[in-house]
């Protein structure tokens, strides 16, 4: 099976590429740069040069494949709305290319759902619709294609997909802690983040490609919800820093752009995903990775 993977050289995408290649899939990875192309070729993957801003090129690559795993996203927090519109256009064109083929289209999404007051479940629909909504409303855009002869699956990733070498949200929190001399959390620190190890997330993507039915939402979640004060304490313990509360009014000044995410309650269950895919997370926990030095910083 020939699978077109966007974001194939990224943090999650490179692990997914490895997982697919190890299980006999042919991978065509999207690459924007010479370095990304070389890394993919060294693994034995084929390369499609392009970017999310070239929806026609993405559509051509999708049409030439037996399935798509769309993991790329332009994380430009200076123009997040524009990034969402780019995402919407890219997804729309790839879905058009796959219409009537019954081929799988797996799309990276997240478990954020403001105001739930409880862990998000796989049965909960995304509240985001349209190009101007979060991530361009791409989850709903994709799932609606189930009626057009496509097998869409929403891959809802935890806010922290952790492991050695992670440069994501938890790494940013570690850098901010070192900069300020305190591992901070917002308010009483009761807001939560779901978490999953990178290897478990990659295996989930492969299983979803093989097993998930059209319209499914699957949760790449191993730990349902870790309180932000506990995440800060784990970082503080490793870095040798005190832990402290940051008033909500001061959060933007202290944390910068990540304050909007660290202040969200982003907890999610995985019961339905485990049952549907036969998936059991086996990788280290977030706190085990922190203690093992995954977020060590240079002096």
From TrEMBL:
Please give the GO cellular component terms listed in this UniProt entry.
cytoplasm
CDD domains to which the protein is assigned, alphabetical: SDR_a7
Give start-end of the signal peptide: none
Give an example GO molecular function: aldehyde dehydrogenase (NAD+) activity
Q: Which Pfam families match?
A: Epimerase (PF01370)
Domain named NAD-dependent epimerase/dehydratase: which ranges? 3-214
**SUPFAM superfamilies linked:** NAD(P)-binding Rossmann-fold domains
Q: Spell out the protein name for this chain.
A: NAD-dependent epimerase/dehydratase
Q: Which organism is it from?
A: Pseudofrankia inefficax (strain DSM 45817 / CECT 9037 / DDB 130130 / EuI1c)
């Amino acid at each position: 099976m020939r699978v077109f993977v966007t974001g194939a050289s990224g943090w999650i995408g490179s692990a997914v590429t490895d997982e697919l290649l190890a299980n006999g899939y042919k991978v065509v990875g999207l690459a924007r740069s010479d370095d990304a192309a070389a890394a993919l070729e060294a693994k034995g993957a084929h390369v499609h040069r392009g970017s999310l801003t070239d929806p026609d090129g993405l559509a051509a690559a999708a049409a030439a494949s037996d399935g798509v795993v769309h993991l790329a996203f332009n994380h430009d927090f200076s123009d997040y709305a524009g990034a969402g519109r780019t995402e919407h256009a890219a997804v729309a064109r790839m879905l058009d290319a796959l219409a009537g083929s019954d081929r799988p289209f797996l799309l990276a999404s997240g478990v954020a759902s403001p105001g739930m007051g409880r862990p998000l479940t796989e049965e909960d629909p995304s509240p985001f619709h349209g190009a101007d909504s979060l991530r361009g409303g791409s989850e709903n855009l994709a799932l609606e294609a189930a009626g057009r002869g496509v097998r869409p699956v929403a891959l809802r990733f935890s806010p922290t997909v952790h492991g050695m070498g992670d440069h994501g949200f938890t790494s940013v929190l570690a850098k901010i802690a070192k900069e300020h001399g305190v591992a901070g959390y917002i308010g009483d620190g009761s807001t939560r983040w779901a978490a999953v190890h990178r290897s478990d997330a990659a295996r989930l993507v492969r299983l979803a490609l093989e097993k998930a039915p059209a319209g499914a939402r699957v949760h790449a979640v191993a730990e349902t919800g870790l309180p932000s004060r506990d995440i800060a304490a784990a970082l503080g313990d490793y870095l040798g820093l005190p832990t402290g509360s940051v008033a909500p009014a001061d959060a933007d000044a202290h944390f910068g752009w990540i304050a909007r995410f660290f202040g969200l309650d982003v907890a999610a269950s995985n019961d339905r995903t485990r049952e549907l895919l036969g998936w059991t997370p086996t990788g280290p926990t977030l706190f085990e990775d922190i203690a093992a030095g995954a977020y060590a910083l240079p002096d």
